[in-house]
């Protein structure tokens, strides 16, 4: 038998071992049932099970990459709004997520697609140290879409 201080006590009858475990406020757990005589130890079994469960969860925890979308409502984006979108994109990229920029064109703005492409290229250049383009700015209907991935991630173009 092994006590709560990890000291070997020796061969003890089972009733005596159960009494000692109860006095110590612990559980008597059979560690090696196939040995002659079987080895038992005092431990808080509920606490041990909890630690094992937490260790198991931690070993299975992986980072899941998400696609974060930043919408730019118009080509007429203000400097402060642009900085806010830049800071959000920077935070997402540092966390390891992909960032999709979605620029909307309304009405007569469709005649100035080049301004929208310039905005997208500016984001791409400013975030160049953190990210690389997975998808270059491309016009789809009334939207221009660009996807950036963190530098460490693989591209799938």
Draw up the topology in text.
Blueprint lengths: L13 H11 L2 E6 L6 E5 L1 H16 L6 E6 L6 H16 L3 E7 L8 H14 L4 E10 L2 E8 L7
Parallel strand pairs: 3-4
Antiparallel strand pairs: 1-2, 4-6, 5-6
CATH topology-level fold name of the largest domain: Translation Initiation Factor IF3
Distance between the termini: 63 Å
Principal-axis shape: rod-shaped
Largest β-sheet summary: 4 strands, mixed
**Average pLDDT number:** 88
Radius of gyration: 31 Å
Please tell me the total number of domains: 2
> What is the percent of helical residues?
25-40%
Helical element count? 4
Strand content: 25-35%
Give structural notes.
The chain is of the alpha+beta class and 157 residues long. It folds into two domains: 14-60, Translation initiation factor 3 (IF-3), N-terminal domain (Ubiquitin-like (UB roll), Roll), CATH 3.10.20; 67-150, Translation initiation factor 3 (IF-3), C-terminal domain (Translation Initiation Factor IF3, 2-Layer Sandwich). The chain has helices at residues 14-24, 45-60, 79-94, 113-126; strands spanning 27-32, 39-43, 67-72, 98-104, 131-140, 143-150. The protein has a four-stranded mixed sheet with strand order 3-4-6-5, with helices on one face. Strands 1-2 form a two-stranded antiparallel sheet. A hairpin with a 2-residue loop joins strand 5 (131-140) and strand 6. The model has no long low-confidence stretch (mean pLDDT 88).
């Amino acid at each position: 038998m092994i006590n709560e201080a990890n000291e070997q006590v020796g061969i003890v009858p089972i009733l005596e071992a159960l009494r000692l475990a109860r006095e110590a406020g612990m559980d008597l757990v059979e560690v090696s049932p196939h040995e002659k005589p079987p080895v038992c130890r005092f431990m808080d079994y509920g606490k041990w099970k909890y630690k094992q469960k937490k260790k198991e969860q931690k070993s299975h925890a992986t980072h899941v990459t998400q696609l974060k979308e930043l919408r730019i409502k118009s080509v007429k984006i203000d400097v402060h709004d642009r900085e806010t979108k830049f800071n959000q994109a920077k935070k997402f990229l540092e966390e390891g997520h992909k960032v999709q920029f979605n620029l909307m064109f309304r009405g007569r703005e469709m005649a100035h697609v080049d301004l929208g492409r310039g905005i997208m290229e500016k984001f791409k250049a400013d975030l160049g140290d953190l990210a690389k383009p997975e998808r270059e700015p491309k016009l789809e209907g009334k939207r221009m879409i660009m996807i950036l991935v963190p530098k460490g991630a693989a591209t799938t173009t």
